[in-house]
Amino acid sequence: MTGSYSESSYSSAGSVSPREREQKTSKGFTDFCVKNIKSAEFGRREIEIAEQEMPGIMILRVKYAENKPLQSARIIGCTHITAQTAVLIETLITAGASVRWAACNIYSTQNEVAAALAEEGIPVFGWKGMSEDDFWWCIEKASNHQNWQANLILDNGGDATHYMKRKYIDKFRCLKGIVEESVTGVHRLYQMTKNNCLPIPAMNINDSVVKGKFDNLYCCREAVIDSLKKTTDIMFGGKQVLICGYGEVGKGCCSALRGMGAIAYVTEIDPICALQACMDGFKVIRVDDAIRIVDIVITATGNKNVIRREHMNKMKNGCIICNMGHTNSEIDVDSLRTPDLTWERVRSHVDHIVWPDGRRIVLIAEGRLANLTCSNVPSFVVSITACTQMLALIELFKAQPNKYKGDVYLLPKKMDEYVASLHLAGFEAQVTELSDDQCQYLGVARNGPFKPNYYR
Amino acid sequence: MTGSYSESSYSSAGSVSPREREQKTSKGFTDFCVKNIKSAEFGRREIEIAEQEMPGIMILRVKYAENKPLQSARIIGCTHITAQTAVLIETLITAGASVRWAACNIYSTQNEVAAALAEEGIPVFGWKGMSEDDFWWCIEKASNHQNWQANLILDNGGDATHYMKRKYIDKFRCLKGIVEESVTGVHRLYQMTKNNCLPIPAMNINDSVVKGKFDNLYCCREAVIDSLKKTTDIMFGGKQVLICGYGEVGKGCCSALRGMGAIAYVTEIDPICALQACMDGFKVIRVDDAIRIVDIVITATGNKNVIRREHMNKMKNGCIICNMGHTNSEIDVDSLRTPDLTWERVRSHVDHIVWPDGRRIVLIAEGRLANLTCSNVPSFVVSITACTQMLALIELFKAQPNKYKGDVYLLPKKMDEYVASLHLAGFEAQVTELSDDQCQYLGVARNGPFKPNYYR
Amino acid sequence: MTGSYSESSYSSAGSVSPREREQKTSKGFTDFCVKNIKSAEFGRREIEIAEQEMPGIMILRVKYAENKPLQSARIIGCTHITAQTAVLIETLITAGASVRWAACNIYSTQNEVAAALAEEGIPVFGWKGMSEDDFWWCIEKASNHQNWQANLILDNGGDATHYMKRKYIDKFRCLKGIVEESVTGVHRLYQMTKNNCLPIPAMNINDSVVKGKFDNLYCCREAVIDSLKKTTDIMFGGKQVLICGYGEVGKGCCSALRGMGAIAYVTEIDPICALQACMDGFKVIRVDDAIRIVDIVITATGNKNVIRREHMNKMKNGCIICNMGHTNSEIDVDSLRTPDLTWERVRSHVDHIVWPDGRRIVLIAEGRLANLTCSNVPSFVVSITACTQMLALIELFKAQPNKYKGDVYLLPKKMDEYVASLHLAGFEAQVTELSDDQCQYLGVARNGPFKPNYYR
Amino acid sequence: MTGSYSESSYSSAGSVSPREREQKTSKGFTDFCVKNIKSAEFGRREIEIAEQEMPGIMILRVKYAENKPLQSARIIGCTHITAQTAVLIETLITAGASVRWAACNIYSTQNEVAAALAEEGIPVFGWKGMSEDDFWWCIEKASNHQNWQANLILDNGGDATHYMKRKYIDKFRCLKGIVEESVTGVHRLYQMTKNNCLPIPAMNINDSVVKGKFDNLYCCREAVIDSLKKTTDIMFGGKQVLICGYGEVGKGCCSALRGMGAIAYVTEIDPICALQACMDGFKVIRVDDAIRIVDIVITATGNKNVIRREHMNKMKNGCIICNMGHTNSEIDVDSLRTPDLTWERVRSHVDHIVWPDGRRIVLIAEGRLANLTCSNVPSFVVSITACTQMLALIELFKAQPNKYKGDVYLLPKKMDEYVASLHLAGFEAQVTELSDDQCQYLGVARNGPFKPNYYR
């Protein structure tokens, strides 16, 4: 996490596993397991910085501090533990909920943030670099605790959901519902409905309109510049860049790179996206036709083996390769692990691969997602998702008994618009209100929804 | 039609209605009714210019000249008669069809183009400024002719469709289908299916993906600059412009204006579009808060009375008002027809409205659509729609007897992609082909469709 | 002049030369010679439209209406007679001057504007399409009139200056000075100082900082889009455009074209400008390497024979060629006048040149300056020059007897800044004032000049 | 230096001053003084990364490896010791020079790079965080060494020049010349010429055209995004940013911020720059009128106290303040050191200043230059300066005895163009060559210079 305080100064705890160490907060609280409770103060600062950039969730915090819609809600959380999630967690608590939280990924925990949450008396379980065994141990700790009977799950990837279902099926059936944000987790939920084995309602946050419109396009517009600068300090002006894929991610990358004076070329398989690239002023070519001249190659396709050894053999000396797409398989990194090539780690997340003739290419993050590995996800965009999650939790918690069944639901369009409106305040944006006349003319209600249901 | 030859030089025919004059082509053909057959040569040049900018339909013309998929198709056409439609019409004929054509609008006919079509022996009926009575007379001439039994209708607005159904129901039932491109026409078709009175299949071209992605955004990006320059010669650099609405039209306008150094402000009713405007770098405000400072106001909402007398009372001296939206009701022009205000027609399509204190505002096209009135629709974008129309006609004509019923159909996604691909050639764009491996990984066929059906 | 009222309606005066017709204004004034005094009303409207876009000169008009700094100044004007010059002329008169005016070009007079000036009792001499003989007759009429002894010349090209000097040397010696705006005129003045034969002071307006910073860059950014749209209706999105030259004109063209979604390529001879093009994100290539793929070629070099027959032989069918540079020799148009090629005039200012194989290229304005021929110069930018001219006239008129000698002077830097400031009002721009402390720190006076003298 | 290997792993040498420790390279060389010779390998990697982005200097290295124009040149260098300077130093040596090098700043040395140079047997003296006394000791070591008599100085700031002149005036008089790149150093040289005490020629690199055109504009376009991301991770999309000053730095910042979707406002004192901002589409306002709404404030004026306590008192909670201008006095940081405000260091180079009511503003780098403190200067731009320095050194070294006197010289325009051309290769840019005909027409030589001497 660039820019944040490095942990080295307080990592003296060393190699003993957090599970084996007894830690205590300044107030004597012990129901947690983090890397080092002493780093809480640094984590608190990161949380405060995140709060500044999360206007939507902060508005909800103020609003729900009074009427406490989650009073007596008990939520099992299983997400990345970062400064931004911390803002969500503390807002859930302000709204009346009690929570227990586990990390959904063995690498992604910001240790000092986890410490800051624990220091506030929140049962949080997870640390960076934990083992697979630790991972499930943390989920167990979050989901099973004495007399604490959860009524909601906030999941990312479906692991908490499936763990509960497998191990504590009775408790699982009593839940009021699940809120899931990831592609994978949503996929698993739909599988369950197909097999008729989802006994409780679930909200699919991943396919909400606000997420679709804002996440990829705007996040990647920022992240592509940020991750390349942080790793290589390259100057963008005049650089020739090949962007593979002109979906939302590709569009965001192209827009940012042009803004910095780079020349972007696009590859596409879909003629519709290809024609958009043309109309937006980008030359559409094939990898083979561009690979000898470009300075940077960015993958954003969702496909596999888009950049292969045959391409990398032809790249210019010093060419940078960076993956911004969905998987770690867009660049065929395995093909670079041959005896004739030398790998040199030159900086954190940066390898030089050296050909026998001395030519070197610069590989970012070993082909994993550069935007997640080398850049911070903008808190502002996480705020949009966090609001959606919170509203979905409240919706499930407050719903009339038979409103939702054992099925997967999308957030109502109106809530999408509400989440968007929460984020306008930060921009001093003033939305126009319709007159009665105009409502009638357009056939919409004064407060929306303004777009048809099929709108994306 | 700016830039084209003015008609004055050959309009000596004067005030006698074309219906009452006998006209003959150089080859003695008389089955047509246009303003002045002598202007054919000028029309031919306009058609040639349009052909240069319509790569997709010209590729189809070459391709279908051989296998003639419309051999023995007989098409009633009812559309705007412009250079671009002429390119479509002549391509349909090259593909084997015989056609009879009527204007779908009493104002939009390019007289010299109609003459050029007639000169080629095409039965075409329509002229600029014809009466309502003339309008229906033309449709009658196009749809009813001796032994010529139509089997397809290409409609824009539904008038030919409804005329046929009302007057020649038996012939109507024998049609292989209808292709309809307009919002209104599509709406009327859906009404018919609701009432169970559409006996034959119809293709809804208006909602095809290529139309949605390209028409509004890219047409308006060009048209906003063009129509304001042609009417007012205003300099855009540094001008403050209020764009009401941030849908596709508004997005296109904002993008073009920024490119010319103007400062764009946006109004929106929908928080999602408002947030997009923010993220794209445009200030979102209300009309009231901007109206005193802006130099240009553009409406692009689809709503009515967006700019009202109360706003216009506050505008700066010289402020320009221009409608780029869907209707002629976005600007409340009626409210300007009061005794205290003076109207001065200063140029074609430009009125100055003068307040008692001498302040004047500049109204473009009396509030009608500036992009259609004061600018030419780019041939390139019309080519996309024309290809879609042509493919839909062939699909209906060639379909197995029971494939389509009395219902409204969308063009298959794959045809959308095909139309897009036809237009890539003009940009020298090279689409990438998937390997077998990648097809399998993505779960798509090598030639597409590449996007799910619900993709928009 | 696109968009303006055509003259056909009032050109019944027909082919009799204006010099041979007696014309009278509605008030009986006859000391003028224009095409048709009856078109005055249309010209007045064009002048009013121009006033809206000339904030600087209109501010001076209000300011100088009171103290009349040009009281008893008698100015011989010899410039293009357009709506914008009319605004300047009427402002000079408001400031106390009496004027006599001749056209500086046989083609550029807006006849209806000349009529509008005459109608106000201003002695104006010139019409569109006059002969060489007429031209000098008009200058004679403007410079020699009974007891009216001029004390200033406002010249464009130097013709009035040289006519006076040659024919009325005594009167010439009595002038307080000359203000000259054109490259050519300035060149001729410097020649005179070299030869020691300039007896009176002259102000070189052409090399003022405001002109250099604003004229080419911002005018051409607007004009390139405008002139191509008005002549060809081409869609810019996705088009590949070759811009020859990356000086101010080329920079303006590239910026506008990118803003509309075109892909711009640049040619340059100067490595410094070439490197700027690179850093701004434009590919720098040679004409030969791009000529087969581009859709539009724009010359902006100031050089000759930049596009030659050998290039045009290789262009794509439909490629457009357009000159935005300084001369009419950038495109070797003569090389196209060979028997194997056919010229077709397809629209006003548009020729198709057809190769034996049917391929056609589209030549704009026969290679003359497209921005002047096919587009209107933005009134806003003319306002900057007009203010500079007016201030220079006042400076010469009011100067202490020995302040200026028989030499060519540049406008003081401070006046440049004043002219700029006059144009900020139109943009609601608020300039910041320095505190005493800051003035001292920077070593500049509170009201400027803010930049050193060598600043360009 | 973000992204580079942290030193913690090899800093065990601890608090003993480098001057007091004996260090030896792997080959037994000892004529150097750096922080820790063991970090040489890390430094070598940073140098290799820099080489990739410095095409111009690398071309010169290859070219001069053969004819060795600096054979028997002995250069005293006194500059920042960074990876980029290391590339220059090693190129000078390849060209035949022998060098001795001292740091020109007590903070800016990249210790591992200094180690890498020493490891190659280069006498280099300097380390990060050295004292004032150490600083002069290093210059002494560089300039005075046994029988090594320097004949050139490459200086940055003038300290080596003045030290030599003061302490070793005889040796100083024997130098062939000085090359100086900084504003300060150049100022001091001009002072010396004024006082008639510069006995040898000096080249002013700071005012070369290539430096002026590329350094500020393009460096700051990159640095503004980079330094704010690295310190605050802020999302730019939709943010309102106030840029104080629209010179080259301000222009670069505005361009980059717009490219990322931010809304930029500009303040200016000079009407000419203000009008440019308007024409480029930025609103020009006063600090007071914007300060309550903006999210980020950037100073780029060269002035002092542009942002004062009175402004900061009104800023929004979370507003970021960042200086990109010339001095550390643009933001009145002293005014924030009052008892009522609390300073919290939240990250490296980031302080929160907390008001009594809880509102906090975010101050970057305590008001020092953010682009230098929080971002890396792009190697590409340093390459331009480095080439200029190298060519100037060769010019002085090779000049005929009386060509240059005791005066300050500018680099000939032609060398400016040569340096630019060296950097085009990296962009695959192809410059066009003039024909004889065209040379004659333009009045320039085939290989330039292409612009007049007064061109800037």
Describe the structure.
4 copies of one chain form a homotetramer. Chain A has 456 residues and is an alpha/beta fold. Chain A folds into 2 domains: 13-207 and 378-411, Rossmann fold; 217-373, NAD(P)-binding Rossmann-like Domain (Rossmann fold, 3-Layer(aba) Sandwich). In chain A, 40% of the residues lie in helices and 14% in strands. Chain A has 17 helices and 15 strands. In chain A, strands 9-8-7-10-11-14-13-12 form an 8-stranded mixed sheet, covered by helices on one side. In chain A, strand 13 and strand 14 form a beta hairpin. The longest helix of chain A is centred in the middle third of the chain and has 24 residues, at 209-232. Chains A, B, C, D: Its cofactor is NAD(+). Chains A, B, C, D: One of its GO terms (biological process) is one-carbon metabolic process. Chains A, B, C, D: Its EC number is 3.13.2.1.
Overall pLDDT level of chain A? 92
Task: Tally the beta strands of chain A.
Answer: 15
CATH architecture descriptor name of the largest domain in chain A: 3-Layer(aba) Sandwich
CATH topology tier name of the largest domain in chain A:
Rossmann fold
What Rg of chain A, in angstroms, do the CA atoms define?
24 Å
Q: What is the structural class of chain A?
A: alpha/beta
Number of domains of chain A: 2
Spatial strand arrangement across the major sheet of chain A: 9-8-7-10-11-14-13-12
**Bulk shape of chain A:** globular
Low-pLDDT residue spans of chain A:
1-13
What percent strand of chain A? 5-15%
Overall CATH class of the largest domain in chain A: Alpha Beta
The CATH superfamily of the largest domain in chain A is Adenosylhomocysteinase-like
Name the chain pair whose interface involves the most residues.
A-B, 52 and 52 residues
Largest sheet of chain A: 8 strands, mixed
Question: Fraction of residues of chain A in helices?
Answer: 25-40%
Helical element count of chain A? 17
How would you classify the quaternary structure? homotetramer
From the N-terminal CA to the C-terminal CA of chain A, the straight-line distance is 33 Å
